[in-house]
Amino acid sequence: MKKLTLPLLLIGLLMSMSPSSYANDQQSYGSKVGHKAANGLANVTTAFLELPKCIINATNDSNLIWGVVGGTMQGVLNMLGRIGVGLNDLVTAPIPTKPVAYPVYIWNDFDQDTTYGELFRLDN
């Protein structure tokens, strides 16, 4: 039972997050900090999904060979990027800023390549 507790809590946390929560401008400070910490945790724990995402997208954009080779390289870079952004969000959670990686959560738009915005843009 102890082995299942942490994964179940993580799944519950990730499922409770909504992409529309960033659209609400009337969030409290605690809510912004919580969303940023949850976003950081989600980026760190799901970064490995960048590999299949990039391979699939590169294959659909060109061919199978480039999809496997180029998609793997792009996936590794995006995976490292998501881990870095996630760690940054976890460390700087008390400073509410806008998300850096788009889509915010990797599962929001799996067909869209991951892009990165500016760091430390305050969420007013």
Key terms for this structure?
single chain, 124 residues, mainly alpha, two-stranded antiparallel sheet, 4 helices, 2 strands
Summary of the model, kept short:
With 124 residues, the protein is mainly α. 59% of the residues lie in helices and 3% in strands. It has a domain at 49-116.
Q: Could you explain how this protein is built, in words?
A:
The protein is mainly alpha-helical and 124 residues long. It has a domain at 49-116. It is 59% helix and 3% strand. The protein is built from four helices and two strands; from the N terminus they run ααααββ. It has helices at 2-16, 29-46, 50-61, 64-91; strands at residues 101-102, 115-116. Strands 1-2 form a two-stranded antiparallel sheet. Helix 2 runs antiparallel to helix 4 and helix 3 (50-61) runs antiparallel to helix 4 (64-91). The longest helix is centred in the middle third of the chain and has 28 residues, at 64-91. 22% of the residues are buried.
Largest sheet data: 2 strands, antiparallel
Q: Which descriptor suits the 3D outline?
A: globular
Radius of gyration: 16 Å
Order of helices and strands: HHHHEE
Order of strands, main sheet, comes to 1-2
What's the helix count? 4
Summarize the amount of helix as a percent range. Answer: 55-70%
Roughly what is the average pLDDT, rounded to an integer? 84
- Strand elements, count: 2
**Structural class estimated from helices and strands:** mainly alpha
**End-to-end CA span:** 42 Å
